[in-house]
Amino acid sequence: MIERDLADLAPPLRHRFIARTQEILDSYRQHLGHELIVRSGDAEDEACRLFAAPFAVLSHGFEADPVLNYGNAISLKLFEMSADGLTRMASRLTAEPMNQAAREIFMQQTRAQGFATGYDGVRISASGRRFRIEDATLWNVADAPGAPSGQAATFARWTML
Question: Which of 45, 48, 67, 100 has its CA 20 to 30 A from that of 21?
Answer without folding.
Answer: 100
